[in-house]
Amino acid sequence: MKKSTKSSTAGEAGYDVIRQAIIDGEYREGDRLIEAELAERAGVSRTPIRDALRRLEREGFVHIRAGSGAVVAKYSGSDLTDLFEIRAALETLGAGLAAQHARAKDLDELEAMCDAMDKIAAGRGTDFLEAFSVQNTAFHLKILEMSRNPQLAQMAGSLMKLGVIMRTYNRFDITRLERSIYDHRCILAALRAGSVSRAESAMRSHVLSSIDTFDATSDAPLSREK
Questions:
Q1: What is the tens place of the pLDDT at every residue in 95-116?
Q2: In what residue span(s) does the HTH gntR-type domain sit (predicted)?
Q3: Are 153 and 201 in the same domain?
Q4: Nearest partner of 47 among 57, 39, 55, judged by Cα
Q5: Which domain holds residue 92?
């Protein structure tokens, strides 16, 4: 594991090193994260490592268990199904409200985000997974902001855990990636048209498609039994 050269503080250095190791698969789901080992690798003391682990927990990369320390986050099928279903409900509402309140500059900002995702997907660089996931999250958060409902934006935004989003996109083949990009364009088109029903339908379908992705790429499908 390489030490971070980009971070200006010990806390950022520890955060960068741990997160990158998880993204690279050096630490897998359920693996223990030992503070002393992480501190040595990052070249910092244990205090900033604890801060980094708490931040990574908020982002969905890590679970911290009282008395036993931190482990790489492991989500059950029911955990992920619950998460995506709640997100779908809240973001569907947010998209409908955004369609009513959308301003030209907000729509242009969403357009720029879609263009950025197109470029990232076409390049497929070494940091593709993180770059695309971050841009995707920004797109969804912007729509929630456009709803002009701060309570809704806060509730839904708290469920957008980068660790889960990156895990989702890591399962995407080119067809699923192109579908995700297409979904974003459909949502944007509905918002530009000011169509509440289209915006709600497009957003709900898009968020719930994550369950289909896990079903198609996992031995333990997430879909609930009918």
A1: 999 999 999 999 999 999 999 9
A2: 8-75
A3: yes
A4: 39
A5: 77-217
Beta strands in the chain (DSSP E): 32-33, 62-65, 69-72
Rounded Cα distance between 57 and 107, Å, is: 32
Q: State whether residue 83 is helix, strand or coil.
A: helix
| Gap between the Cα atoms of 17 and 2, Å rounded | 7
CATH code for the domain of 43: 1.10.10.10
Give the tokens for residue 55: 């931040």
How far is residue 124's CA from residue 141's CA, in Å, rounded to a whole number?
23
pLDDT in tens, 33-43: 999 999 999 99
According to DSSP, residue 172 is labeled: -
CA distance 134 to 128: 10
Q: How many CB atoms lie within 10 A of CB 128?
A: 15
